[in-house]
Amino acid sequence: MNNEQRKIGVLVMSYGTPESLDQIEAYYTHIRHGRPPTEEQLSDLKARYEAIVGGFFPLRRNTDKQVEALQETLNRDYPDVRYVCYQGLKHAQPFIEDGVEQMVKDGIREAVGVVLAPHFSTMSVGTYTKRAQEAADKLGLSIRFVLQYHLHPKLLQALSERVSAQLDAFVKDGVAKNDVRVIFSAHSLPEKIVEIGDPYPQQLLETARAVAERTGVTNWQFAWQSAGQTAMPWLGPDIQDVLRAIHQEEGVRYVLICPIGFVSDHLEVLYDIDIECKSLAKELGMRLERTESLNTDPLYMETLSDVVHRKAQELGRE
Questions:
Q1: Same fold, 3-150+297-316 and 153-290
Q2: Which annotated residues bind Fe(2+) (predicted)?
Q3: Least confident residue range of 38-42, 137-141, 164-168, 291-295
Q4: What is d(CA 193, CA 199) in angstroms, rounded to the nearest whole number?
Q5: Residue 55 has pLDDT above 60, yes or no
Q6: For the whole prediction, is pTM greater than 0.90?
């Protein structure tokens, strides 16, 4: 088969989210490995979604747009290959296995899997790729995976532009750039990942340092957010504890949060930062801003397009 006829499927994987309020219980039950949430847990999660523009479900819509934009970018950048993108979600339909099955039904024989998360962890990206590989093996699909892209130049450029834009807004209001504490954040994971040498914390720090260097930021730190409510300890410090500490111990008045672990607007950004963190900051008398999410930013789409195409070339060399 020559390159002009070559068709490659792209399994775009992400955490998933319910599409409506009445799907929240099933979604939460799936996250809890089949154990239904308590009434209190369910009520809390519903309240969080309802707080975001009256229950608007941004993650699903944003993911749809990202998948569409990635397919357009791939086929624009690499016209000799026909790329077809499919969704595979961890906790909602279409599940990862559904995406693999649909590719095979559509006659796809070669595929690349990529997760909408730049940093690798065995507990996040690793679980996605494991499920996809198992499904592909059963159906005879040849698939390769992008495992991380946390230092891709275009990703760093996109993040740096966002940090610079928000810092410029502070400066325009008369705040000295060095008076703004930049906090890079990401989703916490159980502390046990450190014991197994998981690269997730280190990769996040590498991204944070790279963005800080590109933007000339020296007044920065890292914090974790959105930890799960489980008996096991999760990585810290939690971002709300950090906000209290820098206010009380250092007198910090201006904060910019750059959630580098998230690539689109969803619950952990629109609620955990925009509502909870901003509410705490107001209570503490601090001004808190957040960098815009990547969503379908062309630089992010080009990042994904590049790493997917590179991995597809490996398929061609088999």
A1: yes
A2: 187, 268
A3: 38-42
A4: 9
A5: no
A6: yes
